[in-house]
Amino acid sequence: MITRTTSLLSTAIVATCLIAAPAASAHAGDVEGRNEALKRAFTSVGAAASEHVVQLKSSRGSSIGYAVAVKGEGGATVFVTALSTVAKADGLRLAPKGGGTFDAKVLKRDEDLALALLAAVDDPEIDPIELGTVASIEPGAWLISVGNADIPVAVGVLSAKGREVLKSERQANLGIFGLFGGGDNKGPQRHYDAVLQHDSPITKEIFGSAVVGEDGKLVGINVDNVYRGSSYAIGVERVRALIDGVEPPKPAKRPARIERPAPRETEKPAEPKGNRPFLGIAIEERAEANGDVSFICDSIVAGGPAAKLGIKKGDRILSVEGKTYGSLEELGAVIGGKKPGDVLKMKVEREGFTRDFEITLGRR
To answer: Candidates 3.30.43.10, 1.10.150.110, 1.10.10.10, 2.40.10.120; correct CATH number of 43-252?
Structure first.
């Protein structure tokens, strides 16, 4: 278990929630009460961040999620959202906090990142949000999910970062006493290379919302909620990767025409080909009693590059490329900096014995 200290503000908020919560805190009503109390506590953070968030609407006017204003190539403002929110949309509109709607179009869809990049047809005059870093937050930190209103849509605690999520093969019904939030949960329905996992109670209607730290800076974008207490966000470094190399069109300086429907896209942008390295290991970061960090192979993808060479679940990673690392983010950056086909050198320990591997990375 990784134990982290929190700020005085966080400690005060926890104390308030514990005092207010009745003993039977497992009931859904108590969970909602905790969330409402936390949302009120972080209203000032939510109000500031919501200036940079728009509600995402379909051409029929129904809400399908949120998108966050970020600075694109050349300094123009673009909007990032969860890929799932635009997967079936035939026309998109952006609804800022101040009112009105603006037609939008998809600039880029990235299946690997689970994100999409949008541009407004007209200029909504929304300033981009300030980007933070995943390195600035640690497990135990408060994460505030923000829509286009002053009060946050949800607040929770970061439980893991840089976590690889494997697609579940589970078919059984897990709705035991409502513990997992519903009766048809089948686990993650897709693979994620690395996510921020937090316990904010988000739903698909608020996918694409901004995830900010207590300083109000963007650290991620909400993309999924698998079980109650297990929400996933894509870290801000991957948001930067989505923006990189995209040249958005310059928006026209004319008023939004909210009375006409958004034009249908006649052509879908070409889907990017997967060109990311694939190791096939879900790595868990553990804090040791002496303060050091160790990395454990939590699960191995059958038939993946690591599995083919005999790496097993429970193996302890001693070094990668001849070096040791202080965090999962540092280790992930080294692996992520490789290309498919590159050879990754890894030393692992199993049952007191060490072994060196040279793993040829696959393609995702």
So the answer is: 2.40.10.120
